[in-house]
Structures are given as structure tokens and as C-alpha cells.
Batch of 4 targets.
Target 1
Amino acid sequence: MSRSLRIRTPPRPLELDFPATADRLAEVRHAVQQWLEQCGIGSDRSYDVLLAIGEACANAVEHGHRGDGGIVRVHASYSDGDLRITVADRGCWKPPDPGTASVRGRGLAIIRAVIPEVSITTGDSGTTVAMRIPPAT
């Protein structure tokens, strides 16, 4: 009995817009996880991506919009082993209060630790975190 060949094609790019409220973050992580599975991305790599996206989205909610319900946009694409993700908000960044001693404030360091290429653009129109995991060599 012959088996038919199955050619895996990556799904369409992921486009998520969600209100900048903390109660939506689990829903976003779940949708991204499903999309990563459709791409055939392994669990170790998926864990890193989910961690980075979760941190970027949490930062957009907490620092960019401060829970105002503005829109956060997540875009992800996968082609030929190249994974690209952006998380963008239209909020106004509020720097942390330097007078408060806290164990918080490690989100960007975490993102940079698990994603090989990260760029952050801030301005009057909001903040965009662009992440890329190039194909394995």
C-alpha cells in the first residue's frame, strides 16, 4: 500500500488585535501556541517564543496602555524556517519609577535572552517590539 506525500505548508501569518487588558493575555498566548503548532515548530522553540510574546504583550498592556483598553497588535509569520513576530501598541510609554525597589522590570531582558534578534522602536505613535528567529543553520 502506498502512502501519499504530505507537504507541510506554513499557515497564513497570524494577526491578533486585542484590548490592552491583562485578562486577555492568556487568550493571546493560547492563540499563538496553536499557530506555532500549525507551523510545526518544536516545543523548545515554541516555549521561547511564547515567553517572549507574553512579555512583550504584558509590557504593552502595563506600560504602553496602562490598562486603558487600547489595542495591541501581534503579527507573526513563518517561512522557510524564518520566524518573525511583532508586538505593537499605540500607547504612551511610562518609564518605571526609579524610587521603587522591585523585582520587576526584567521583561525586555527575558525577551533578548530567548530571541536571537530583537529590536524595539518607541515614539509618539507607540512601541513596536520586532523579534526574529532565523532558520537553524
Note: Strands lie at 14-19, 71-79, 82-89, 117-123, 126-133.
Target 2
Amino acid sequence: MRPTHEYRDATTQEWDEFEDHFDRRKVELGSCGRPYGTPCQHEHACVRCPMLHVNPKMLPRLAELEADLLDRRDRAHAEGWIGEIEGIDLTLTFLRAKRDEAQRRAQRPAVHLGIPARHRPKDSK
């Protein structure tokens, strides 16, 4: 029950900023679910970011990324780069979880929610 005088139309600048935020949410693998007006605090390390929603169409790209990470892990193991191995393993864990979620989402059918209708109470005319 907000007072009417508190409502106003958005300025052109405010509307442009709002649209710009959602344009910036589009990333290679899908979209970022971060709230409006917040920056990407993960420095665009999207595969590890819990806010990334992978588009199921990008599953082949995830397979490419996984193959590359496995190659990098083999090299790190051969060179004895223990810290690098740990980082790659963490990234692989996130990548596989995101892949599994995208595969589940791809198998779910779309749900038609319809348009809500207003119903009149029985005692009204």
C-alpha cells in the first residue's frame, strides 16, 4: 500500500541502465543470475560461479572445456604443479555439476502456465 506520490516513471538513463544490466548477464555458456545492480563478484570465472545458468545448447562447448581442462591437468601432473591440479580439479567439479544440471533441464518439458484469469465471488453479479 505504497503512497501514489512515491511512484514515478523511470528516466531514460535509468531504463538504459536497467536494460544494460540484463545485456551484461548474457555470457558464452548461458546467463548469469546475479541480481539487478550488482557486479560480477567472481571476475567472470563463470564455470565456477553458482550464478551461471548454462544453456543446454552449450553442452558441446562444456565438453570442449572439460577436454581442455583434462589436458591441462595431465600437464600439471607431469610438471608437478600441485596447486594447479587442485584448481583444475575444483573447476572440473563445478563444470560437471553445471553440465549435469543443463542435461536435466534439457530433458524437462516446457510448462505452459497460461494466463491467469480473475474469478468473481459466487455471491457477486
Note: The chain has a mean pLDDT of 85.
Target 3
Amino acid sequence: MEIRKMLENYSIEKACEGITEEELKKLEWATEKLQQAINSNHRIAASRANIEFHRLL
């Protein structure tokens, strides 16, 4: 898990090097959507929001 965590952090850093303000806003929106689904314990919505977040990355 530690190696996966390191690789994911590195991947995110590389993906965000050239990010635009519009792209950042979309990622923030996707993060909020994911957090709301997690907080409401809605697993299907959380899974879909997680996929959307990673698609945006």
C-alpha cells in the first residue's frame, strides 16, 4: 500500500503540473461530489464520483 500511495501521489503531481483554472475547478467539484456521497454512505454514487474524479485527472 505504501508503494501504491507513493505512485498515486507522484501521478497526481505530474498530472497537475499544467492544470488550468477551469480543470482545477472541475476537480474540486468532483472532490466535493465524492465527499458528499461518502458522507451520505451512498456507495454507488461514491463509486461513480471516484471514477469521474480519476477521469478528470
Note: The chain is about 80% helix and 0% strand.
Target 4
Amino acid sequence: MSQSLGTALTRPSGLAIDRPRALARRFGNAAGSRAYDLFVPSGYAGTPLPLVVMLHGCSQTSRDFAIGTGMNALAEAQGFLVAYPDQPRSANFAKSWNWFRDEDQRRGRGEPSIIAGLTYAIMAEFSVDPSRVYVAGLSSGGAAAAVMAMMYPDLYAAVGIHSGLACGSAGSMSAAIATMRRGALLRPVQAAHPVPTIVFHGDRDTTVSPVNGDQALAQAQPEGRLTVTTVAGRSKGGMAYTRRVLTEPDSQWSSEHWVLHGAGHAWAGGHPAGSHTDPTGPDASGEMLRFFLSHAKNRRAHRH
């Protein structure tokens, strides 16, 4: 997202990479329809597998996002399905998910109903472990992932928010631009049913202020005492980062906040053939997957 909710700061370098093989699907309901690509690992044989729903950022496409994040290679190696919904220009001129519109921040309405609907459609068509369904996104996709975690805590076992914003941070496009610059003026509503959340955000992000990452993590925290562990590190590409791990005593809930020092508005550790990536950063895709697979949904969880 830029100030116009459009392009981000980096561009693909033109390096060649094999186009990921994926099934082309479309889901529609009363709110509209979206095409999506679905990667199924070659080892799929009917055994229930995890599912990760990946929401691209502004100006990106589902295939571009798949290349940049490298999530399909992880899916092939570790055995899970990945879905990439595609936001068309007919829905938003910048191909941004409409995370800032009131009707697109509600369960059973707008884009959340479409994303949840295609998630359920995949679960009906393929053998998916219903306790291991996850959602992640970059920029506007990260903000949309936060919405999905708030509206469908019964569906998604964990969420990944890269350079995104908390659910309810804005209610209009003008408010969204201001929120991207400085964060939400009012603290976003606390999640009634907190979903384990992993947040990545560059501390030099001038497109979506890092305070939005703080707010997204705060929104997902349960009330009560938390244990916090902080670790400083450096990626293989040389980027320094601070990783903060929050856990709730006697609970399966945990969250992580990765502050990427010197990083802008781009997917950390991504492939340079995809847009809006920073290959020098820590491997956000691998770390998200590690975090996701450490959380399984309790199927007796309260329906929101």
C-alpha cells in the first residue's frame, strides 16, 4: 500500500523463476466472487493436510505473491495446501483488499465472507485438517488477514500479518491513509477470542507505520498476565531484527512480533523475482509456517 493504497516500495528484479503450478479456482457468493490459485503438493494422497490462505498486497497478483513469498516450495517440502485469492481491479483500483470499509470488516459480509467461503470450499473439495487452517497477508492483505482472525476465530488457528494493520483501524479510505501514516487514533477493539498471531514489520516502513504492527499484535492479546521473551538476531542476509515472543501461562496461546531493523515495506526473506520483497530479511514465510504449525485449533472453540 502506498499513500494512495496502491504500489509499495520495491519492484521485481526480473530474475527468472519457474511459474508455480497451481489449480485455478473461483468462489462466489452474494457478496461477489474471487478467483484464486490453489497449490496442492505432489504428495497429496487424501490424508488431511494443513491449509494456508495467502492474501497479497496492493498492486500484486496471486501468482506474483506466490513467487515472492516462496510459500509453494515450503508447501511441497512439508506437505500442506496454499490458496492465493486474487483481488481484481474491479473491486479496488489498486488491487488492495478493502480492509478499511465497514462492510468488509464484518463476519458474513463483503470480502471476509468471500475469503472464508473459499476457505470452506477448499476444505470441502480436498482433505484438509480443520484444526490447522491459517491465514496470512502482506500490507492490505495483512490488514485483511487481521480482519479474518477477528471475524472467524473459529475457522483460523493462527494468523500472519506482514506490514499490515489491526482490524477496525479505519472505516473509510481517507481514514485508512491517515492510519497508515500514524496508526489508529483510537485503540482497535480487543479480540473477544484471540487468535495466535505472528507480526512482521520493518521499522523504516514509510508506507504503513510500524505502530500499526504494534496495534495488530495488541489486538490479538488475551487479557491477563503474559510472559514476554525478547531475542535479538541477524538474518543470513545481514538484516538485524528483534523477535518478541508472548505466551499465556497454562494456555496454548502465543504470539510473536518481529521488528525488522532498517527494513521498509516488503516481504522479509522473499524471492527477488516477486514484487515487494526484501531478500536480505529473515525468512518470514518459513517463520510463519513454523509458528502456524505449532498451533492447532481446538474444535470445541467458541463460534464467534
Note: The helical segments are 62-69, 71-78, 110-125, 140-151, 173-182, 211-219, 284-293.
